[in-house]
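Exam prep: given the inputs below (a chain plus adenosine-5'-triphosphate), describe the expected output before reading on.
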Amino acid sequence: MISAAASSASAILPIASSRNPTPPGCPWPIKQGAVARGKVACACVAPPVNFRNDGFSSSRYDDRSSAAEGLGVAPMPEDDLDVLIECRDVYKSFGEKHILKGVSFKIRHGEAVGIIGPSGTGKSTILKIIAGLLAPDKGEVYIRGRKRAGLVGDNDMSGLRIGLVFQSAALFDSLTVRENVGFLLYENSNMPEAKISKLVTETLAAVGLKGVEDRLPSELSGGMKKRVALARSIICDDTNDSIEPEVLLYDEPTAGLDPIASTVVEDLIRSVHLKINDAVGKPGKIASYVVVTHQHSTIRRAVDRLLFLYDGKVVWEGMTHEFTMSENPIVRQFASGSLDGPIQY
Ligand SMILES: Nc1ncnc2c1ncn2[C@@H]1O[C@H](COP(=O)(O)OP(=O)(O)OP(=O)(O)O)[C@@H](O)[C@H]1O
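Solution:
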């Protein structure tokens, strides 16, 4: 069993301790009371509404519609029935810094989307807003057609499980790799410890890590930490659908990795997507994912569609293969890395 300090808390991310409940790398403070209650506090995960593993079957829509009716939600247009997340005219400032100035986009079921753009344009900020960790100043975030009110910790009826894999990996320094990866299962499942331990070992093997279960994060390289964080985001209890993330948000998952380690992580990101079948023909568990990245290899290998964020707005969107052919001067400059063009440093 994991240490008593951590076992009182619950999250997809590890909680630091009952004295200091905010885990490393977690950008928002955890309410002490929430930790004491053993509720999801630091989670980038909200409980699902009618969550199932079978994709968007018609019966799933029916379930959702009736749930939505009960909440007085207007029916979605036919074309948008597969929209999982929508940001509509989102604004966010930090003091005098106006970062997001009307960001709008939709993430549909089954999509693998990349968010790119120059440093400091608010890519991580929009991920945190999608995850419900930051509130927009203006504009709305819709989760399966339902407007999110408040942050994820305030409102656990977001209707979609959303996991955020932080750039920093955000592992809990005083927990072993096994405890970090199995955290959600130790906290939220009734699985016996031996079964969790076995699942942790299998999930670590799936991300290419063997024999590291008893190590502390400080004993791992940066790339290994990222893979441990990835394992933590994809581990799931097969006996309980309700604790699996359905959308994963990756913040620069390959930053700082060598080219081969990047390829490993890019392929892992793909491998958990429901569009990909594993060796025994079983589809991945993640309906859609969003990757913030600066790496060309990640853009090419891990995502299908791109959103280009610049000066507080989405200035271009298209399929990955269209990116390098775009005539948009901002995109052309970014793709070529040229110093000449509208983007000024
Ligand atoms: N909590 C915060 N308080 C104050 N400023 C913040 C906060 N979070 C982000 N910022 C600022 O907002 C801007 C956008 O940050 P963000 O991390 O979203 O950019 P980014 O596009 O992901 O950058 P990069 O590509 O360099 O990682 C930056 O200027 C950053 O300093």
